[in-house]
């Protein structure tokens, strides 16, 4: 990066995200109700690029993010770059079973689905076609989503913890979930943990 303006812009963006100040575009939604850190939102239709990964939590995050980042930064049939949006979604989509001599049968959750939200300026006719067959474009209709916001590190243990909290909140209010929980990350890894915006999302009736 030899352009001094580009270097300055990059440094400024990094500094802002370290402090939890966000400039990336988010999908459009309206808050229907709120209870502390929990919100019920109505999301507008959106397009997502998604990919499935079979790996442990940390490794799956690296593989999935890099694969999707290549797509939006020009790794597509049209060689067209797109802007990065937030959040980055991740959810468990199953288990692969492993065996060892001690247990003979020990299931591990290590099949994941990661997705990026596409910029709203694109539709299915204008969105670049992925070059990688492992990147799939999906059209998501308008939907109601229960969300729980929290700060700190984003890892599998905290994802499980806050998923259980949100699921219990829905159960207490007899609200039917329509999806498994998924994490929503709004900040890069270098953001100060206490300033990070992490969420759990569950689609609801």
UniProtKB/TrEMBL annotation:
<dbReference type="Pfam" id="PF04832">
    <property type="entry name" value="SOUL"/>
</dbReference>
<dbReference type="InterPro" id="IPR006917">
    <property type="entry name" value="SOUL_heme-bd"/>
</dbReference>
<protein>
    <submittedName>
        <fullName>SOUL heme-binding protein</fullName>
    </submittedName>
</protein>
<dbReference type="InterPro" id="IPR011256">
    <property type="entry name" value="Reg_factor_effector_dom_sf"/>
</dbReference>
